[in-house]
Amino acid sequence: MRIVIRVLMIAAVFAVVTARPAMAQGDAEKGKAVYAAQKCSMCHAIAGVGGKSSALDGVGKKLSAAEIKSWIVTPKEMEKKTGSTKKPPMPDRYGKLPAADIDAMVAYLASLK
User: Fold this and answer.
1) Can you list the domains of the chain with their CATH numbers?
2) Which of 26, 37, 42, 54 has its CB surrounded by the most CB atoms within 10 Å?
3) What b/e string do you get for 85-94 counting C-beta neighbours within 10 Å, with b at 16 or more?
4) What are phi and psi of 46, to 5 degrees?
């Protein structure tokens, strides 16, 4: 009986660990759609497409997911923290998006490595 329980526990752990990358991919795809719907490309560029003020290529290498989320939710605080003087400044309105949309956009931007 103990062996059966151990095998089931190992199988459950394996299922959770292998499912997370697929979920993250889905989150990133949703985040890409949120990025487009919020018209982020008016100011930001990815792969040369979009506004020229702030390219986001490689942002997933440069910033942690928490830092990316802070830029989305509290851009004025991040401007102060980093000493950013980019014009125009990031609007302070995206923190009002649904939490799932913010998390999806963070997943998408974090995938840009």
Assistant:
1) 2-110 (1.10.760)
2) 54
3) eeeeebeeeb
4) -130, 125
